[in-house]
Amino acid sequence: MGARPTSVLIADDQPKVLRAFAAVLSAQPDLRVAATAPDGAEAVRQARLTRPDVALLDIRMPEMNGIEAARRILQTERTRIIMITTFDLDDYVYDALTAGASGFLLKDVRAPDLVAAVRTVARGDALLAPAVTRRLIAEFARQRRRPAVPDGHGLTPRETEVLCLMARGRSNAEIAAELVVSEHTVKTHVARLLAKLGLRDRTQAVIHAYEIGLVVPDSR
């Protein structure tokens, strides 16, 4: 018996987008569309009924926008959120990420990239769309930077190293190679630092690293 398919909720007020995304994801044997919704309020209701693994939420929807829907879903569910937007530097994207979203996609995303994004976020082990997401996080974190707390974040020196490398877009394999440790060890460090910081996933960790000044925007 195979693994349980990843269940997905899709919410968008454009029927064409909703149908297209549902068709692409339903065609994958490891993915299952649990529900669809035309607005944020219905998305929240469907999330509580179906408890999906991943929710794709349009940022701008009637009744309730995607950001508020994400907040409400994450209050009670362990669903991972992907926001859908028309523009890659949408002013609302950073608010969505800080509300708990794991990343974002453009509405014109290619089918293979949509499928890969859902799988990536479901695993919770990589930053979604690293180049664009990281650029956006850096820009808004630059505006909203909190005072740096290099000794007050509660992480060990090695966990801090891992967090810095995550914030620079490194995968677990790349971090393992750079630190000369096993990938399993990196995964352990990632899990521990997320738990210590009370963060949901890698995207939230990247935001945190920028906001406290642990990583300087545009640094390498």
From TrEMBL:
The modification 4-aspartylphosphate is found at D58. Signal peptide: none annotated. It holds the Pfam family GerE. SUPFAM superfamilies: CheY-like (SSF52172). Gene3D superfamilies: 3.40.50.2300. PROSITE patterns: HTH_LUXR_1, HTH_LUXR_2, RESPONSE_REGULATORY. Keywords: DNA-binding, Phosphoprotein, Transcription, Transcription regulation. Residues 7-122 form the Response regulatory domain. Residues 148-213 form the HTH luxR-type domain. This is Response regulator. It comes from Nonomuraea typhae.
